[in-house]
Amino acid sequence: MMFINQRRCKVKMYKLICLDLDGTLLASDCSITEKNLSTLKVLMEKGVKVAVATGRSAENARYFALKLGEKAFFLGNNGTVVGIAGKKEYLSQHKIGYEKVKGIFKIANDIGANTIFVSENTLFFNNQEEYDKFITHKDSWELVNEKSVFFKDEERFLDEIAKDKINIYKCMLFNSKNKSFEEIRRILEKNGDYELYFLSGGYFEIIDSNANKSKGIMVLEKHLGINKEDIIAFGDSENDVSMIEYVGHGVAMGNAVEHVKDVASATTKTNDEDGVAHYLERVYVELINA
User: Fold this and answer.
1) Residue 214: which residues within 8 A CB-CB, separation 6 or more?
2) Cα(290)–Cα(280) distance, integer angstroms
3) Which is nearest to 248 in space by CA: 226, 219, 276, 278?
4) Alpha-carbon dihedral of residues 63, 66, 68, 71, nearest 10 degrees?
5) Is the N end or the C end of the chain the one with fewer CB atoms within 10 Å?
6) Own/partner pairs for 191-200, CB < 8 Å, 24+ apart?
7) Nearest to 244 by CA among 33, 53, 26
8) Inter-residue contact 66 to 85 (CB < 8 Å)
9) Cβ distance 279 to 252 under 8 Å?
10) What is the CB-side half-sphere exposure of residue 24 using CA atoms within 13 A?
11) Cβ contacts of 92 within 8 Å, gap of 6 or more
């Protein structure tokens, strides 16, 4: 069945396909299935552009984009970094500045939470035991094109950011000892100019307020000379909502959270049922068979 949820549905030959990774393009074992991969490669050979749009780091996103080809695009860290798989330079980037990182540290210390700060390809953390628990608990997390760095000195870490020796694009906030997640959300919204996502793993992702997946897509619109009506996007989680709402046709995965299904134009099969390929084969049936 093509459209399980058939609201605002208008099928056309979209020029750009944007794909979340975890829970969307990737199966539960963190792989791109052969069916998804072959379908996307056929469409790219016929001129359709493809971008992966993920909360993973920029270089992790590039790793998966390269599986599609050097001309594929990627949006890393929830759209804070946009690039082309085969080119080293980024098309755009939105860092979390020194003052905002300092503010996150203060909030984390006040509420007894742990933090992981993410650069282009590095996860920085200051509590080894809690970091190991967090990464182990996140079954879908795979350190690809990434490294982990433990730091003891918060002030030295901030100094490196102030001197632009480290670029921070995202923070993950987790395991607060004395605040509920709703309380944390209120504190973050009150004390900082951030874009916030609460994800199913039980943690917050924090990025700069000037960035999200939809704003990253706007960069690709300008680069490719297209408009949002020319774009179809797939997602499953809260950090996909801006993208699903923004594009011409947003598709929720069968395993998506209810909020994503509510704002999407349609719903496809789950990520473990090749939901992306299942949907695209019907949208692009004429092009694929041409």
Assistant:
1) 79, 242, 243, 245, 246, 247
2) 15
3) 226
4) 140
5) C
6) 191/103, 191/107, 192/100, 192/103, 192/104, 192/107, 193/100, 194/100, 194/104, 195/78, 197/55, 197/78, 197/237, 197/238, 197/239, 198/238, 199/55, 199/237, 199/238, 199/239, 200/237, 200/257
7) 53
8) yes
9) no
10) 28
11) 81, 82, 216, 219
- Which pair of structure tokens corresponds to residue 286? 């004429």
pLDDT reported for residue 136: 58
With both helix axes pointing from N to C terminus, report the angle between 98-111 and 154-162 in degrees, rounded to the nearest 10: 160
* Structural contact between residues 69 and 51, judged by C-beta atoms closer than 8 angstroms: no
Question: What is the dihedral sign for C-alpha 281, 260, 23, 228?
Answer: positive
Q: Which of 135, 128, 257, 268 is nearest to 198 (CA)?
A: 257
**Domains of the chain, each with CATH number or no CATH:** 16-93+211-289 (3.40.50.1000), 98-208 (3.30.1240.10)
Q: Is the dihedral of CA 135, 176, 257, 194 positive or negative?
A: negative
The reported pLDDT for the residue numbered 9 is 46
Q: With CA atoms as reference, report the closest residue to 173 among 202, 150, 209, 140.
A: 202
Looking at residue 171, its amino acid is C
Is residue 256 within 8 A of residue 267, CB to CB? The reply is: yes
* pLDDT tens digit sequence for 202-219: 788 899 988 999 999 999
**Predicted confidence (pLDDT) at residue 3 exceeds the cutoff of 60:** no
Q: Is there a contact between 173 and 118 (Cβ–Cβ < 8 Å)? A: no
Q: What is the dihedral of CA 289, 2, 50, 241, to 10 degrees?
A: 170
Task: Give yes or no for residue 86 having a pLDDT over 90.
Answer: yes
Other C-beta atoms within 10 Å of 285: how many?
12
